Amino acid sequence: MSAAPQRTIPFAEFIALTALMTSLVALSIDAMLPALPAIGSELGVTDANDNQLVVSMLMLGLAFGQIIYGPLSDSTGRKPAICLGLAIYAAGCLLSIFATSYAMMLAGRFAQGLGVAGPRVVTLALVRDGYEGRAMARVMSSVMAVFILVPVIAPALGQQIMLAAGWRAIFVTFLGLSVVVLLWFTLRQPETLPPGRRVAFSLRRIAGAVREVCSNRPALAHTVAAGLVFGAFLGYLNLSEQIFAQQYGLGERFPLVFAVLALAIGAAFFVNARLVMRLGMQVLCRWALWTTLVLSALFVPAVYLQDGHPPLWQLMCYLVIVLFCVGILFGNLNALAMQPLGHIAGVGAAVVGSVATLLSVPLGVLVGQSYDGSVMPLTLGFAGLMLLALLTTNRVGSGEG
Predict the structure, then answer these.
(1) For residue 31, what pLDDT is reported?
(2) If you placed Cys at 347, which of 69, 190, 209, 364 could pair as Cys (CB 3.0 to 4.6 Å)?
(3) Claim to verify: residue 248 and residue 355 sit in the same structural domain
(4) pLDDT per residue over 233-262, tens digit each?
(5) What pLDDT was estimated at residue 273?
(6) Domain residue limits at 372
(7) Are residues 333 and 293 in the same domain?
(8) What is the pLDDT of residue 3?
(9) Which residues contact 310 (CB under 8 A, 6 or more apart)?
(10) C-alpha angle 88-93-95 in degrees, rounded to nearest 5
(11) What is the spatial distance between Cα 33 and Cα 159, in angstroms, rounded to a whole number?
């Protein structure tokens, strides 16, 4: 049932706008991957592993931004919060475009993450304000279809832009896109949270939600597990360009391999939607964690015996299965973390997302900085972090009903 008399924007336009805002995070990460060596070379990076920080700093900004925009949108309305985020993101793009040092580049990426957290977090509230029940499910399914497509095409898009006009042109594209989205959103999308439903912004309210998440064992365990899983995935993102483009010599074919692996995660979203009502989130999470752990434990000696450089087909088979499992875990672990927090759903979601992302960033950096020209750090990262996630969730109830 739809309950949005204030909604005037056509449905198809709303889907397009919402999907674009939701996809900005994935686009801002994945389109940059082919350009990492060029950025590091021009800005004086001496250790190739440090190029990975272009990814990690955006995630760090995203972690801090998530905890602010949800409560801010509950106080000021959805439009001011999203517009503020897009403006900060645009400023970060400008900083990166004119970066003359690597520190300046990383500052720009942090600002981009801090800004893009706005549309990412508040868009879900925007949908929830305007739709409910099956209508909301229809909107989210349409948005997810676009969201899955972006990682498939983003590296190829970034590579073509870089080849045509240099890596700074990628940030010019991001800047232009953010301006288009900001104008489109400002001029066309009406405010969905009327003044009578707004809640005053309160740091005490955020601190209370942090305390509640930390004192609720199922919520905390699944939040930590989500951070561990995302840390392993961030390690993969950090290493993907170095492993495929450089170690395996794929060069400009790297976006094609990345697209295949992104499709594995997309397939997991669709499979999970079909299985979760029948099997439950807890069962699917344990299956995915055990599958990744056992497969990684078996792959580690194979990698060792092949001097850290197994045939590409072996690595691809391993990663397709592992990333499929990661796709199963993404939504389910967050949903399990939110299960006991229904009474503080909005600010609770902000805290869960922020804590999980803050945990994932140093873990992803640790995996990435361990790269030594072999795939062993990536395999060990998946094995170790999935084991920790399994141990973290093993003795807590899900509260799944």
Answers:
(1) 95
(2) 209
(3) yes
(4) 999 999 999 999 999 999 999 999 999 999
(5) 79
(6) 202-396
(7) yes
(8) 43
(9) 299, 302, 303, 375
(10) 95
(11) 8
Both 242 and 361 in one domain: the answer is: yes
| Structure tokens belonging to residue 305 | 């015996």
- The answer to whether the beta carbons of residues 327 and 266 sit under 8 Å apart is yes
For residue 227, give the nearest of 400, 21, 366 by alpha carbon: 366
pLDDT value of residue 280: 83
Write the CB contacts of 277 (distance below 8 Å, at least 6 apart in sequence).
Answer: none
The SS3 call for residue 3 is coil
87 phi, psi to nearest 5 deg: -65, -40
- Cα–Cα distance measured from residue 309 to residue 350, given in angstroms and rounded to the nearest whole number: 40
pLDDT of residue 5: 42
Alpha-carbon torsion angle 233, 238, 243, 247, nearest 10: -160
Which residue type does 34 have? P
Residues 128 and 206 in one domain: no
- Tell me if 131 sits within 8 A of 4, measured CB to CB: yes
| pLDDT at residue 11 in the model | 83
Residues of the chain with pLDDT below 70 are 1-8, 132-137, 140-141, 342-346, 397-401
Angle (deg, nearest 10), helices 376-394 and 345-369: 150
Residues 381 and 257 in one domain: yes
State pLDDT tens for residues 95-110: 999 999 999 999 999 9
131, 153, 188 - which closes a domain: 188
Domain membership of residue 308 (yes or no) is yes
- The reported pLDDT for the residue numbered 397 is 58
Q: How many domains does the chain have?
A: 2
Same domain, 180 and 207: no
CA distances from 22 to 210, 277, 397 (A): 25, 25, 31
DSSP notation for 369-387: HT--SSSHHHHHHHHHHHH
Cβ neighbors of 135 (< 8 A, separation 6 or more) are 1, 2
Q: What is the pLDDT of residue 297?
A: 95
* CB neighbour burial string for 60-93, b if at least 16 within 10 angstroms, e if fewer: bbbbebbbbbbbbbbbbbbbebbbbbbebbbbbb
Do residue 216 and residue 144 come from a single domain?
Answer: no
Interior angle at CA 237, CA 233 and CA 241, nearest 5: 150
